[in-house]
Specification:
Layout lengths: L8 H9 L3 H12 L3 E7 L2 E7 L5 E8 L5 E7 L2 H4 L5 H13 L1 H4 L3 E2 L16 H16 L3 E7 L4 E8 L3 E8 H10 L18 E11 L6 E12 L16 E3 L14 E6 L11 E4 L3 E4 L2 H5 L2 H5 L3 E5 L2 H15 L3 E5 H4 L4 E2 L2 E9 L5 E9 L4 E3 H10 L4 E4 L2 E4 L2 H5 L3 E3 L4 E5 H11 L5 E3 L1 H8 L1 H7 L14 H15 L4 E3 L7 H16 L6 E6 L1 H14 L5 E3 L5 H7 L4 E6 H6 L1 H4 L3 E2 L1 E4 L11 H8 L1 E2 L2 E4 L8 H11 L7 H15 L2 H11 L3 E2 L13 E8 L3 H23 L7 H16 L16 H15 L4 E5 L2 H13 L4 E4 L6 H10 L5 E5 H4 L10 E4 L6 H8 L11 E8 L3 H16 L6 H5 L4 H8 L1
Parallel strand pairs: 4-5, 9-16, 17-22, 18-25, 26-33, 26-34, 27-29, 27-31, 28-29, 30-32, 31-33, 35-40, 36-38, 36-39, 37-38, 39-40
Antiparallel strand pairs: 1-2, 2-3, 3-4, 6-7, 7-8, 9-10, 10-12, 10-15, 11-16, 13-14, 18-19, 19-20, 19-24, 21-22, 23-24
Helix pairs in contact: 1-4, 2-4, 6-7, 14-26, 16-17, 17-18, 25-26, 27-28, 27-36, 34-36
The structure holds zinc ion (ZN).
């Protein structure tokens, strides 16, 4: 039996590709409306008359070559075709032939001469649409002669076979969507070919999605499998008898709640791994049921889903990750997620909160045993469980019957000593502090009352600590300094470290010396102590002098300058090395090789930046006790505070990332008060800050402080030059007692030397002050910054107008509002009033003679005498501009002295002769006459 077959594609395809959609539709409808009349057929030539919708008549001819099976002519009399396009009339004829006279075009090719000159089609939507459109009519025509319909799993097409004429058969390939759409056009009750499986099932919708289930082999592994889920409407019944109910499978909604009655839904899950071929663009075909339409949202959004692998496996922490991140994303993309009921119960990812802490003090000093527990809505569990999961298994989640608990960063960030059997954690005081900060309220502490009290506040701790009495100490601590010392001792005893951030003028140095003395006292019985004090170069001498004066037993040693290595060898005995940040950086290898008993960082804001080498050097130091001193309220500079704490107690505030996420960003950008309180709780025990106002009632009226500095190299050479050229000839004269004292010359030389110690640019004309360096000016900058940081107003006196100007320039440059008063100032009253009343004006610079009398500067609480007057009473009078009636704060007075210069000598002279001079308030030169010949010789040497 001869079986002829052809594919519709070849010829129709060609024509379709060269036509507009409209022309093709028109051709189809012409054929269906029976507008194609064959008028002539001679062997290989067919002539037809085609009437268009307006009943215009065209002649269409098709001729093939008898042997080469090539169509030679394919033409129409219409205007379109004459212009070189295929037309709807040609389409109508070919469709007609394909259905009525397939033999004629069977196996034919389109010859070159039959091709249209131009194609009207801009974009081809491919052959599918064509087959679909063509097929509707074909199917309609042949539906009663169909002999076989096969669903081809390889192509996902239907192979349709029909009988034509005597024993001949045609075969079509149809896409799922095309066939389904055709079926859909049939009347509701009729089924195609009487076969139930070729019908469109109503009351059902197919969705693209995922089926999530536990892998049987391990319960810490889930699989998300690509599926199509078919949900049937509730009233779907016997008509679709083969639909199985799947009571265990439920649909996940984005809220993960079960309030919707999922059970009522009948869902059938079809894994796509071996069934993807069943899926068209709009329909899925199920062999024993029929066609089910895909949900509208899925029809256009399925690209990503299609590209995904059939199965994704998630293990361990990836499981909650799937629930928390991937699943919501899929739901958002309108993909459905189905799962088994048992797994659904565990899909929640919960952040538990610290619930209560059972606290017991243990034998070891400073160590505590705790039983903290965490709680969620449904579960309460020991914190140790979370720790074990995090530390032993490096996991971020803990699986429970009610979901996955997200292990708090806090637990992951810290190292824990724990006992998995007793659920106890052993921690030092800091650990208690961190837990306490997190629970928010001490009500959560249960257990030993004593232990609770101990953790409550540092005051209670300090009351309990029997701070040692300092033996043979010259330190006379004021009561608030004693409190600070108690606190420091408490820190030391508990192996903690601290930040002492008292306001300038409260006496941080004294408190530091007290704790060092106490440590030395304790250790001296067993072995010596090694202390390291690091400070800015400008206060190195100050530290040395203070220790020598008040705590000489600490044996201060300046570790500075070229001969410093000598000291380091000696310091095995009791010694306190004083060094600068510069030397720390240079000698870090040496300095970090020691185990220090205490390291003090003075002006700790010098190391606030953790990117600097100095900071990293400081962090390498090993010490039993670390203390940072600063007058800056660090709360305004959180990242700097963090860095200082990282130096003191690494890890206490967490990693930088943790700190940024939990504190820096919420506090700085969102003004999150809760986080601010939390941070305070964390740092509170390790930080002490008192302002002058707080301790006001106990403050003395006036604190005087001598601050020392050194000449810079350029100052030294200038100074020596003046001594050599001017002072030496004078000295020679002076030593001959017969000669009268050349006061004027002496005065001039002394003036020059004083000016050099102030700033080289006072004697070198025409230079920008920034081009020369002065040790004293650097010291001033440090004091100024500390004072400004603590929010106090400052008055600075100098004898030299040029110096006044330099200081004013400097203040302006660093953005500090500043006023000045010299002999030429006209509106004294106005300027003074502004300084007194305007809170923004921080600094008042005055020449000693102009500002030393008759004005009121009580809004300031710090006085700096940049250079020394010959006479203490003149200085005191100037100081009294600030320290007078109306002053509510204590006043701190700084007097700056350059070591190794005549300023030191003047200082001694003032001490010696203060009684003699107290009555004189005259000019320098006059005053000089009160000095003896020997005094003057000493000054000039
Ligand atoms: Zn035509």
């Amino acid at each position: 039996m001869a079986q002829s077959s052809f594919t519709l594609n070849k010829i129709l395809d060609f024509i379709y590709q060269h036509l507009t959609e409209e022309d093709w539709e028109e051709g189809l409808s012409l054929k269906q409306a029976d507008k194609v009349h064959i008028i002539n057929q001679y062997q290989n030539l067919i002539m037809a008359r085609v009437y268009d919708s307006r009943q215009e008549e065209y002649e269409v001819r098709i001729k093939s070559h008898p042997s080469s099976k090539v169509i030679q002519w394919l033409e129409c009399t219409c205007h379109e075709n004459r212009k070189g396009y295929f037309c709807s009339h040609i389409a109508a004829l070919v469709i007609h032939l394909s259905q009525e006279n397939h033999k004629f075009i069977e196996g034919l090719e389109i010859g070159t001469s039959a091709k249209p000159i131009k194609s009207k089609k801009v974009k081809s939507t491919g052959a599918v649409q064509k087959v679909e459109n063509a097929s509707f009519s074909i199917l309609e025509k042949i539906k009663n002669s169909i002999t076989k319909i096969d669903f081809n799993k390889k192509t996902g097409h239907f192979d349709i076979e029909s009988k034509v004429g005597l024993g001949a058969k045609n075969r079509f390939e149809l896409e799922i969507d095309v066939f389904a759409r055709y079926i859909g056009t049939l009347t509701k009750d009729s089924t195609f070919q009487g076969k139930k499986k070729y019908r469109v099932i109503e009351h059902a919708t197919a969705h693209l999605g995922w089926f999530v289930y536990e892998n049987n082999r391990s319960n810490e592994e889930i699989i998300a499998e690509k599926v199509v889920g078919i949900s049937y409407e509730e009233n779907t019944t016997a008509d679709y008898e083969k639909i199985k109910e799947s009571p265990d499978i439920i649909e996940v909604n984005s809220e993960l709640d079960q309030t919707t009655d999922l059970k009522a839904k009948k869902i059938q899950i079809i894994a796509m791994e071996k069934n993807l071929y069943r899926l068209g663009k709009d329909y899925i075909y199920l062999a024993d049921k029929g066609f089910i339409v895909l949900a509208k949202t899925d029809q256009s959004k399925s690209l990503k889903w299609k590209a995904a692998p059939y199965k994704d496996t998630y293990k361990d922490d990836r499981i909650p990750h799937y629930f928390e991140k991937i699943m919501p994303y899929e739901l958002e993309q309108n993909k459905k997620v189905w799962t088994n009921k048992s797994l659904f119960e565990q899909m929640k990812v919960i952040s538990p909160s610290l619930h209560k802490i059972n606290l017991k003090k243990t034998k070891n000093e400073g160590w505590f045993n705790l039983c903290p527990s965490y709680k969620t809505d449904s579960v309460e569990l020991p914190m140790v469980d979370l720790i074990v999961q995090s530390q032993t298994h490096q996991r971020s989640y803990l699986k429970t019957a009610k979901g996955w608990l997200k292990i708090p960063d806090f637990i992951k960030e810290n190292q824990w000593n724990y006992n998995a059997e007793t659920n106890e954690i052993s921690t030092d005081f800091l650990g208690v502090i961190r837990l306490q900060a997190l629970t928010g309220d001490l009500d959560n502490y249960v257990g030993s009352i004593k232990a609770i009290q101990m953790s409550r506040s540092k005051e209670e701790f300090s009351k309990r600590t029997n701070t040692p009495k300092l033996q043979d100490s010259k330190l006379k601590l004021r009561s608030y300094q004693k409190e600070g010392y108690d606190w420091l001792w408490w820190l030391y005893q508990n192996e903690l470290h601290g930040l002492l951030a008292d306001d300038m003028g409260i006496g941080k140095t004294h408190q530091a010396m007290a704790i060092l003395s106490a440590i030395q006292q304790e250790k001296i019985k067993t072995r010596g102590t090694r202390f390291l004090i690091i400070c800015p170069t400008t206060v190195l001498d100050h530290w040395f002098d203070q220790i020598e004066k008040f705590a000489p037993k600490l044996s201060p040693l300046k570790y500075h300058g070229n001969k410093r290595f000598h000291h380091l060898k000696e310091q095995d005995k009791n010694a306190s090395l004083i060094t600068s940040y510069g030397i720390l950086l240079r000698d870090i290898r040496e300095l970090s090789s020691y185990q220090w008993d205490a390291v003090i960082l003075d002006e700790a804001h010098y190391v606030k930046n953790n990117k600097t080498n100095t900071y990293n050097a400081a962090c390498q130091l090993k010490s039993r006790f670390k203390l940072c001193l600063t007058g800056t309220p660090m709360e305004n500079h959180l990242s700097e505070l963090k860095n200082i704490f990282d130096f003191l107690v690494p890890g206490h505030l967490g990693s930088n990332k943790y700190f940024k996420k939990n504190f820096l960003t919420p506090i700085n950008q969102e003004q999150n008060v809760e986080k601010q309180v939390l941070l305070q709780k964390l740092i509170y025990p390790l930080k002490l800050r008192r302002t002058k106002n707080e301790v006001l009632k106990e403050l003395p009226e006036k604190i005087e402080d001598l601050r020392y500095c050194s000449l810079t190299t350029e100052q030294v050479s200038l100074y020596k030059q003046v001594l050599k050229q001017k002072a030496r000839p004078l000295l020679e004269k002076l030593e001959q007692n017969s000669e009268p004292i050349p006061y004027l010359h002496v005065f001039t030389v002394l003036q020059m030397l004083k000016q050099i110690t102030n700033h080289p640019s006072l004697v070198v004309d025409g230079e920008n002050y920034k081009e020369k360096k002065s040790g004293k000016f650097e010291l001033l900058k440090d004091i100024l910054r500390e004072a400004l940081d603590s929010g106090q107003k400052i008055v600075i006196f100098s004898q030299y107008v040029k110096m006044v100007k330099i200081i004013v320039d400097y203040c302006t440059e660093i953005g500090v509002e500043c006023l000045s008063l010299t002999g030429t100032t006209t509106e004294r009253g106005k300027i003074v009033k502004k300084f007194q009343e305007d809170a923004n004006v921080k600094v008042f610079v005055s020449s000693l003679l102009a500002g030393g009398m008759g004005i009121d500067l009580t809004s300031a609480s710090i006085v700096i005498h940049y250079d020394r007057w010959w006479n203490a009473s003149k200085e005191n009078q100037a100081t009294d501009r600030v320290h007078r009636i109306g002053q509510k704060k204590s006043v701190q007075v700084f007097k700056l002295i350059t070591k190794g210069t005549l300023e030191e000598k003047i200082n001694k002279l003032i001490d010696k002769k203060s009684d003699t001079f107290s009555q004189f308030l005259e000019h320098d030169q006059k005053l000089l006459k009160k000095f003896s010949r020997q005094d003057i010789i000493e000054l000039l040497q």
